[in-house]
Structure formats: C-alpha cells, structure tokens
C-alpha cells in the first residue's frame, strides 16, 4: 500500500438500509465532523429525513465536504428503505456497495473500510448471496483463503480461533495448522496495523484450568503446547496455554497485547463484559483494513433515534488508526 493512505479518508458502507446503519452514520459524522474524515457509500434516499449531507464525486473531496455535512458517495438502490423491514430489492445494492468500497481501498482512494451491519437473510433472499457473512465475502473479494476475526476495545483485544460452531465441534476443529495460522496472522497485524514492534500474545487453553496436566483433557498437552512451542522457536512472544478464567482481570490484561481464545464465547464474553458499547470487529489477514461495529441491524429500534453510535464511532477511529499505521509500515 502506498504512502497516500496517510491522508485518504475511511470508506463506510451503508449496510442494510432498513437497519440502524444510516442513522448511526449520521450520528458518527455529528460526533466526529472533520476530525476524522470518512465518507458514506449508499443511496441518499436511505438517510434519515433532514440529514445534512454533502454529495461527493471522489473520496478526495471528503475532508472539505465533512465541514458541511455527512460526505456521501451516492450509489443508487432499487428500492426505498422502510425502517425495520428489509426490502429484498435492495440486496444487490448492499452487496455492490461492499465491493465498491473494496475497490476504492485497494486503489488507495480510501485508507480503510468500516462496514455497517448487513442482514444476511435479506441478501440471500434478494440476491442469492452465497456467503455466510461480511467477512467471507470480503475474503473472497480479496482472494484470501483464511482471515481472522478480532474483537477490540480500549481495554482488551481478543481473537477466537474457532468462531460460529457448536461447542461440541470445537475440539474437532482445532488443529495445529488452524492455531498456527491464527496466531501468525494476528502477530503480523499487531506489528503492521497497530504499530506494536514485539507483540505479546496470551493463548488460552481449551479445557478448565488449561487441562490441569491432563486431568481435564489432553488437548493442551497433545496439540496446543507443541504448537505454541514451535511458534516460540520462531521468535514469537507467547504465554500459554493459560487457564481462561484467570486471563482477563486487569493485572493479567496488562501482560499481553491480545488474547487468543479457543472458541467464540471464551473470547467474546470478557470483552463484551468489560466494554460492551465500544467493541469493534476487525478482520485481520486482508490486504486492506476492515472494521465494523460489534452489533447487528437492530430492526426493532431502527428509525427511533435511540441507537447507540459508540461502537460505530470506535470502529471508525480504529479504522483510521490502523490505516495510518499500515501506511507508515509500508513506507
């Protein structure tokens, strides 16, 4: 990536037009103004009535436009937006906006992508969307076979090795290759995108008390520890496998930069308990920066003016910071 990314704005995709995404985009601009230039890609008709917006033809116009309204790179959709009820006619537009944001970021017109929540069923019903979600679609657009999900807040970063699978399937899914790839992708991202020269990684065990010497399970002895030892041999600073129940109090968190966890809830319960409103979803391993707020479309409150923009604002801040760090790392 070129050094031009230090000044390029963040691209925000519209997400599901019937959800809270449009109103939160406006709230984020009202909070950040020109201090963090970002532009919204979507159909201006889908923004709340009376929104102060500035139509732009090119992302480079974003900083100046931010002083007058939410910068909008218009993308026409087939349908209007009825808050709380997804229109399948808009599905292809949602998908195309994501692809457009990727193109803009890969060409350095944007420094990063911040994605508003999508509604996967609406995309499947309206456009035959063939991906489980945002992350898989972005990976396909980037030509990447494996990416990593990180949840981050000012208090904690966590990475689950396995994500949306049943607990009973976790021991089967865990293997040395998956654990190694997850750790190496995370380590590289911390150096490149977070500016941490020597990342400190803490890895949780799978079983209670990290197996307690085999009394509560053999995964730590047979798979996790040998994998971590091999990575330590490559020079990585890794602690673990550690008992997950003692990893997340304040003194423990001070000893690492990221917690690598074996399954979804092991990672997400602590971060959502510590900082529910400011958690940010980050996709590591892509050739571009991607963040998103850690919430869904929230159809039940869409259009009521009560949605909390904190996670989206934090996602924009993280995207801008990571974009700047990646640009600096690339020279």
TrEMBL record:
Coiled coil ranges: none
Any GO CC annotation of this UniProt entry: cytoplasm
Gene3D superfamilies assigned to the protein according to its UniProt record, in alphabetical order: Isopropylmalate Dehydrogenase
Annotated residues for binding of a divalent metal cation: 164, 209, 264
Top-level taxon of origin: Bacteria
Cofactor note: Binds 1 divalent metal cation per subunit. Can use ions such as Zn(2+), Mg(2+) or Co(2+).
Any Gene Ontology biological process: pyridoxine biosynthetic process
Keywords: Cobalt, Cytoplasm, Magnesium, Metal-binding, NAD, NADP, Oxidoreductase, Pyridoxine biosynthesis, Zinc
Keyword NADP: yes
Residues bound to substrate: 134-135, 272, 281, 290
Reaction(s) the record says it catalyses: 4-(phosphooxy)-L-threonine + NAD(+) = 3-amino-2-oxopropyl phosphate + CO2 + NADH
Pathways involved: Cofactor biosynthesis; pyridoxine 5'-phosphate biosynthesis; pyridoxine 5'-phosphate from D-erythrose 4-phosphate: step 4/5
Cofactor: Zn(2+); Mg(2+); Co(2+)
Function description: Catalyzes the NAD(P)-dependent oxidation of 4-(phosphooxy)-L-threonine (HTP) into 2-amino-3-oxo-4-(phosphooxy)butyric acid which spontaneously decarboxylates to form 3-amino-2-oxopropyl phosphate (AHAP).
Protein name: 4-hydroxythreonine-4-phosphate dehydrogenase
Subcellular location: Cytoplasm
Assembly information from the UniProt record: Homodimer.
């Amino acid at each position: 990536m070129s050094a031009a990314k230090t000044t390029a704005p963040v691209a925000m995709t519209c997400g599901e037009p019937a959800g809270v995404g449009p109103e939160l985009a406006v709230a984020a601009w009202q909070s950040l103004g020109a201090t963090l230039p970002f532009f919204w890609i979507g159909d201006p008709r889908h923004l709340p009535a009376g929104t102060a917006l500035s139509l732009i033809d090119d992302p480079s116009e974003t900083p100046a436009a931010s002083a007058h309204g939410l910068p909008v790179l218009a993308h026409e959709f087939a349908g209007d937006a009825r808050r709380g009820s997804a229109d399948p006619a808009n599905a292809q537009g949602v998908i195309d906006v994501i692809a457009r944001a990727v193109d803009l970021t890969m060409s350095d017109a944007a420094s990063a992508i911040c994605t508003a929540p999508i509604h996967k069923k609406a995309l499947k019903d309206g456009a035959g969307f063939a991906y489980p979600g945002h992350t898989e679609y972005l990976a396909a657009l980037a030509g990447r076979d494996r990416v990593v999900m990180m949840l981050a807040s000012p208090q904690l970063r966590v990475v689950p090795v396995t994500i949306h699978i049943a607990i009973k399937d976790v021991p089967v899914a865990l293997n040395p290759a998956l654990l190694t790839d997850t750790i190496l992708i995370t380590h590289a991202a911390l150096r490149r995108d977070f500016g941490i020269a020597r990342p400190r990684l803490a890895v949780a065990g799978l079983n209670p008390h990290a197996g307690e010497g085999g009394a509560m399970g053999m995964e730590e002895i047979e798979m996790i520890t040998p994998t971590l030892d091999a990575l330590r041999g490559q020079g990585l600073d890794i602690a673990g496998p550690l008992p997950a129940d003692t990893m997340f109090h304040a003194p423990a968190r001070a000893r690492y930069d990221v917690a690598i966890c074996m399954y979804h809830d092991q990672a997400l319960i602590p971060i959502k308990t510590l900082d529910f409103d400011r958690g940010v979803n980050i996709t590591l391993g892509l050739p571009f920066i991607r963040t998103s707020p850690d919430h869904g479309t929230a159809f039940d409150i869409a259009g009521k003016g009560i949605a909390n923009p904190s996670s989206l604002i934090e996602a924009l801040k993280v995207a801008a910071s990571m974009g700047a760090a990646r640009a600096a790392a690339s020279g």
